[in-house]
Amino acid sequence: MVFHEPERRGQTGAGTVGRQMLAILHEIDLGIPHQLRGGNLALKAIVLIHVRGAVNAVEKAGIIRGWKPVILGETDPPSSVLARAYLVGANAIRGGSDYFYEPIDAQRWRWRDVGLRMELPTPALSGPIQLANAGAAIAALRALDKPVPRAAWAAGIAAARISGRMQAFERDGVQIRVDVGHNPQAAGQLARALKAEVSAGRTLAVYASLQDKDAAGVVQALQDVVGEWTLAGLDGPRGQSAAQLQARLSGTVAAKAPLADSVEQALAQVLAQAERGDRV
Length: 280
Known about the structure:
Layout: E1 2-4, H1 11-16, E2 19-26, E3 44-50, H2 54-60, E4 69-72, H3 79-88, E5 91-94, E6 99-103, E7 108-113, E8 117-121, H4 130-143, H5 150-159, E9 167-171, E10 174-178, H6 184-196, E11 204-207, H7 215-222, E12 228-232, H8 242-248, E13 259-260, H9 263-273
Helix pairs in contact: 6-7
């Protein structure tokens, strides 16, 4: 089974997925690695996308297929998404209507639908959005109507990890968080996760971005939680130098940030000035 994230109007998913089993539409980027885009995909595939705003909703809803389940992770999805599902006869399964998730305490949460009720461990992935993510994933597996042992639900939730998604390290008393969020929506979730953490010192950001990303929107989403910025360059055909990134951030709080040729160099610069209790 393969997770696949289409780029625009469902074209990537339609062109490379042999037999699509269902679709998940969620309000944020769930962090599925982009290496899974394109190439030779397995015949059985789940298409995973994110929806935010009217234009994105119209484009992304194109992956909804007739008579196939579509999991709508948002409690109030865009009307264009619902219209597409009803038009093609897709089985729309909505969070907050057809399935529910709620926290019990710091260690447990509850997932339920009309036929199943489970108490599960808090997801290992960090961030307040992870209950919604896990809830949508469970709904997707339920929609496939495949047998899942009762213990496997809890084991999967507890063991799920994505490298680079709020990944935590510590170095000489400095907390380091690595996150691959590359759009304002993901940056907003990162900001909420950082605010939920206890941090005694400063929050220092190392930021690099591809040319085709909304860099200013990312900075704006994080500006209330980040105290100081350092900008880094990225190699590759879609990459850009730190100076190019800085030019695109004119008018933001990161417009006059120090520059570095690479993320590695930027991280070394920031760690050299960080103190115990700070967060990078």
